Amino acid sequence: MARKMADARFLQDQRDRRNEPHIAPINALVHSLRDRDGRGWVPEVAPMHAGVDAKVLSILRDPGPATRSGVGSGFLCTENDDQTAENQTNLFAEYGIDPRDVLPWNAYPWYINAAPGSAQLDEGAAVLCALIDMLPDLRVVLLQGKEAEAAWKRVLRLRPSLPADRNLTVAASIHPSRQALWTADPDARQARLDKQQHAYELVADTLKTPV
């Protein structure tokens, strides 16, 4: 069942658990980023996700309105009360990917609710490098959308040997929002769906493969 953050009891449970050992270091990073250089607010990550135990790092574009405190949950979470989060819940379930293995993040982690520019993606890539260093069990980086792919290219400029050093699988997909499939060309739409399917199958297969 998706959109659990709409349930006040579920939301309060996530708030109560926000300092559990697996997620506390991630949320400490979040707090260190908030208002850095005047960039503004960054949502915490919900403790239902993997935190420092993550096997999958899922990167989208930027935090949406449902992540805002007082407006939404205040968390990055696949159970947020919005369509993109619901799509994520359904995709992870379809491919047998446990949300407890996943750490959600964004190419630009600060709240802007807009496509980040080149300089913003540079800043986001630097944060991604620091974040990945906190994830000793990471196996897969799931890039969802063109901004996520652009941020990853910047990560590779900063750390060219990172995928080989960490034995990381990188899977590129479309963004999970409905807008990613908006096209009048049925062949283009199918190509996007095929890209998504391939990426999620790669994530699922990697997790099934013994280390």
What does this structure look like?
This protein is an alpha/beta fold. It is globular and about 45 Å long. It has helices at residues 8-16, 24-33, 83-94, 118-132, 146-158, 162-166, 186-208, and strands spanning 44-45, 56-60, 75-76, 102-106, 140-144, 169-173. The strands form 2 sheets. Strands 4-2-5-6 form a 4-stranded parallel sheet.
What's the quaternary structure here? single chain
> How is the biggest beta sheet arranged?
4 strands, parallel
Average of pLDDT: 96
Based on secondary structure, the structural category is alpha/beta
Major β-sheet strand ordering? 4-2-5-6
Helix count from the secondary structure assignment: 7
Q: Report the sheet-strand fraction.
A: 5-15%
The outline comes out as: globular
Listing every helix as H and every strand as E from the N terminus to the C terminus, the arrangement reads HHEEEHEHEHHEH
The strand count comes to 6
Which residues form runs of ≥5 with pLDDT under 50?
Answer: none
Overview features:
single chain, alpha/beta, 6 strands, two-stranded parallel ribbon, 211 residues
Task: Describe, in short, the structure shown.
This protein has helices at 8-16, 24-33, 83-94, 118-132, 146-158, 162-166, 186-208, and strands spanning 44-45, 56-60, 75-76, 102-106, 140-144, 169-173.
